[in-house]
Amino acid sequence: MQSDIHHKIHLGIIMDGNGRWATRLGHERGWGHREGVRAIRPVVEAVRDAGVGTLTLYAFSSDNWRRPAAEVAILLRLLGSYLRDEIESLVRAGIRLTVIGRRDRLGVRLSRRIAEAEARSAMAERLHLRIAFDYSSRDAIVEAARLAGPNITRDDFAHRLSGGVPDLDLLIRTGGEQRLSDFLLFESAYAELLFTPRLWPDFRPSHVEEALAEFRTRQRRFGALPGPAVAA
Ligand code: IPE
Ligand code: IPE
Ligand code: MG
Hints:
The chain is 42% helix and 16% strand. The protein is built from eight helices and six strands; from the N terminus they run E-H-H-H-E-H-E-H-E-H-H-E-E-H. The chain has helices spanning 18-24, 29-38, 40-49, 69-92, 108-120, 137-147, 154-162, 205-217; strands at residues 10-14, 54-61, 95-100, 127-135, 170-173, 192-195. Strand 3, helix 5 and strand 4 (127-135) form a beta-alpha-beta unit. The longest helix has 24 residues, at 69-92. The protein is globular and about 50 Å long. The mean pLDDT is 95. It is an enzyme of class 2 (transferase). Catalyzes the condensation of isopentenyl diphosphate (IPP) with allylic pyrophosphates generating different type of terpenoids. Its EC number is 2.5.1.-.
């Protein structure tokens, strides 16, 4: 599924830097994660208002299980409280929520809450918000490959991998690191990359607007010769 100017854009954000944000202010890392959750709603609403079609937020990687159990427990609890506290507001805002990644390690209660939030918001159409949690792009690719026959086409494979969500158009990573950390590897084949040193808890709607303005200046060629810059 090649991106073009006709579909609404797919934006991905690697929400990084919560731990450093807290440490700098003399707090525990968990404090940074809580403040990170508070930063989500205004950003999501700004993304919706900017006419983005799909927003994928990277919240917890499958490698994040390697962190201390206490920090992992905080992150799992925060997903649960986010779903509990935000689902009504998301539905009212016309936002459909789905969660990508493994479910089998999250526990019965959290998995049930995810399924309920997904069902509750299934009819919303203004923005598709995907939270990547216990997510590994390499695992997702291997899983899709397992189910693919030998004659599968690239487009069919992409569809199987992402359920019809278009390729990533713009990837923002906060927190200063310039790497993908196993996020949407296949889907990022032609994504524009934008790295900002700003830590996630400090990320605001104005920074979304700046990022989208920067994206609009990028000339996407998809391997062809230069054409006009995208107007998204
Ligand atoms: C992002 O912030 C959230 C997760 C990865 C769960 P970090 O916790 O990675 O924060 P830093 O990178 O240590 O500052
Ligand atoms: C990537 O951040 C995962 C999320 C933001 C959820 P990490 O902080 O885990 O990535 P690395 O370890 O710095 O690559
Ligand atoms: Mg980090």
